[in-house]
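pipeline/complex-builder :: batch 7 item 3
reading input block
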Amino acid sequence: MIAAVLLFLAALTPEQAARAERIAKDIRCVVCQNQSVADSEAELAKVMRRIIEERIAAGDNDAEVRGYLVARYGETVLLRPTAEGANIVLWAAPAMVLVLGALWAFSLLRGGAKAAS
Amino acid sequence: MHLLAMGISELGTFLLAVAAALGAAAAGLGLSPFARTSPRIVALSGAAMTAAFVTVASAFLFLLIAYAETDLSLLNVYLNSHSLKPLAYKLAGSWGNHEGSLLLWLLMLAGFGAAISLSPFGDLPTKRYAIGVQAMLLAAFGLFTVLTSNPFAPYPEAWPTPSDGRGLNPLLQDPGLAIHPPTLYLGYVGLSAVYSFTMAGLLTGRIGSAWAKAVRPYLLFAWSALTLGIGLGAYWAYYELGWGGFWFWDPVENASLMPWLAATALLHCVMVLERRDTLKLWGAALAILAFGASLLGAFLVRSGIVTSVHAFANDPERGVFLLLLSLLFIGAGFVLFALRGSKLQQTARFSPVSREGAIVVNNLLFAVVLFTVFLGTFWPIVMETQTGSRISVGPPYYNAMLAPLALLMAGTLLFGLLVPWKTGGSGQYRRPLLVAAGLSIAGALALTLATGRSALALAGFAAAFLVLAASLLDLLRKGGFGTAEGFKASRLQGVTARSWGALVSHLGLGLVLLGITASTVFQGEVRAVLTPGESTRLGALEIDYISRKQIAGPNYIAEQDLFRVMKNGRLLTELTPSRRYYPAANQATTEVAIERRGLSNLYLASAAGQGLGEARIVRAHSHPLIHVLWGGVLLLAGGGLTAGFAKRRERQRAAAGKLQERPA
C-alpha cells in the first residue's frame, strides 16, 4: 500500500501535489477528532489522501475531487460547509446580525449625539 | 454525632450536605421578600456564605488527601487514581473526573460568594441580593453534587477488594492539562459573581456606575483566568496531540471561547457604563449571556451532545441534567431582565466620534463574532436533528467569516485608543490614526505580496499590525507624545495601573494575532516514511532518523526515536519524540519533541502505522513566531489582572485626574 502511495505521489506534478495538499487540509478525517486528513496519520486519512491524489491524477478539478469524497463518505468530510440549502443560514446569518446590530448601534449613537449637543 | 468515628466517606458527604444547607440558608436570607434589608441580614447571609466556603474547602482538602494516599475506600479514587502515579497527578486527578470537578466548581462558587460577602463593593441591597443569588447557585449545584455526583461515595462492599486504582486517562497526565481545566473553571465561576451582581442590580434597579465598580474586579479576574485557561488549552493541544495545530474550532474549544468573547465585550461595556451611565440594558444582557455561556462551556463538555478531545469527565445523563440546571439559571436571568430591564433609566451623552462610540462598535463586532461562533458550533447539531444530514463546520468557515471582523475590530481599537472620551474634540486624533492605519495595512500588504500568501494572511497581519500600532501609539501618548511638551518617559509614572493593564492587554492581543498568523502562514511542514538511517529535509534543515529504543517510565512503557537535526552539515540538536503506552489504562499517547529556536519552534512527531515494519511516519513542522503567541496570551491575562487589582487609592487618583482634564 505504501508503495502505491509513493507511486501516485510520484505521478503528480508539484503543482498537482500542492493542490492535493490544499484539498486535504479542508477535508475532515472522519475517524479522528480535530484533524484534517492532511494532519492525520490514521489509516483512513491515508486512504483519503490517496483518493484525492488519484482523482487529481485522473484529471478531476477541485470541486470534483470534493464531490467524489462527499459521495463516498458523506458531507461531514467537508470542513468548509457548502452554502447550499439550509446551510445558507450558516453563511448569511452573521452578516445579517452585523447589519441589524449596526442599525442598533447607529440609533444609539445618534441618540447619544443628540443628548450631547 | 459521632464525628470522630466517621470515615472519610461519611465525613466528606456530611461536609458537602452542610455546605449545600448553608448555601440554602444564605440564599433564603439574601432573597427572602419578607426580611427587610438591613446590615444584620447582609452580615448574616454573608457569614453563612463564608462558612459554606470553609466547609467546601475542608471537603476538598479531604478529597485531596484521599487521592494523595490512594484511599480505595472511596469509589471515586478507585476509578480515577492509581498508586503508581506521580503525586502531582494524583492530586490533579481529584478534579479530572466528573464528581471531583463538581467539587472544585462548588469550591470556587463558594469562594466567590465569600469574596462578595467580605469585600466592600456594592451598596447594601445590591450586596444582599448578590450574596443571595450566589448562594442559590451554591445550594443548587451543591444539592446536585450530593445527590447524584458525590465524590465521597464509598467503594461498594459487594465488590471484590481492589488491589489498586484504575488509573487516569494518560492524556490527562500532563502538566498543561492538570492546570488547564481548573484555570478555565476559575474563569467560568468568576463570571458567576458577575451574574449575581447583575441579578442584584436588576432586582434593585440600580445598574450604573456603582454596579460597574463592584463587578469590575470579578469580571477582570474571571476574564484573565479564561484567557489563561484558553491559552493553556491551546498550548496543551499543541504539544500533546501531535499534529502541530493549537486550535481547531472544535465545539469544546468554541464553548470556552464564547464566554470569553462575551466577557471581553462586557468589560469594555462596563467601562462606558461606569463613566456615562448608559448601555445598562446591554451590559446586563451581556453579563447574563457571559455566565450562561460559561455554564454551557463547562457542562456541554460532559453532556455527550458534542464530542471533542477536550471533553473530559464525560457522563451524558448527569451532564444533560447539569445543562438543564444551567438553562434554569440563564432563563431566570433573562426573565428578570425582561421584567425589570425597562426600569433601568439610561441617558447616553457622548458624541459618536468618541471612545464610547468606538466601544459601542467594538461591542457590536464582538457580538457578531460570538454569534458566528455560536452558529458554527450548533448548526451541525441543528442540521443533524432536523434533516438527518451530518455536516462539519471547521477552520475554513471560521477563518473566512472572522478574518474580516478581526480586521474591523483592530481598526476600531486603533480609533478608540486615539480618540478621547466623550467627544471627538478638535480632531487631533486624525493624523496619527491615518498614518498608523496606512502603515499597518501597507506593511501587511507588502509582507503578503512579498511572500505570495493569501487574503487570509493579509487580514491576519493587518489586524496584528493595527493592534500593535494602537498599543505603541497609546504608550507614546501616555508619555505626552503629540502634546506641546513632547514625549517624556517620566510622564509614564503618572499612568494608573488600570491604564497599564489595558495597554499590556492590547499589546498582548496584537502579539497573539501576530503569532497566530505568522505561525500558520509561514509554517513549514514535511512528512516522510523513514527507517533508522534515513533522513528528510525541512527547509534548510536535514533531519536524520538515527535509532529507536524502548524505555520504561513510572507507569508507562515507551518507544523513543532519536533524530539528529543538521544545518549546513553542523549538528543543531537531537530530538527524541516517543510513543507511550499506559498498561493500567490500556491507552497510547504520542509525545512530540519540540525544539525552541528563538521565538520559533521545530516540532517533530513520529508515528507507527500498519504494515510499516521498521519504518515510522515522521512529521516535522517549523512554526515561526509561535512563542509570540504564547507570550501574547500571558500579556493579555497579565494586563487583565493588573487592571483588576489596581489599588483603590489609585482609582481615586485616576478619578481626580479625570476631573482636572475635563475642562479642556
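note: Chain B touches chain A through 55 residues (CB under 8 Å).
queue -> next item
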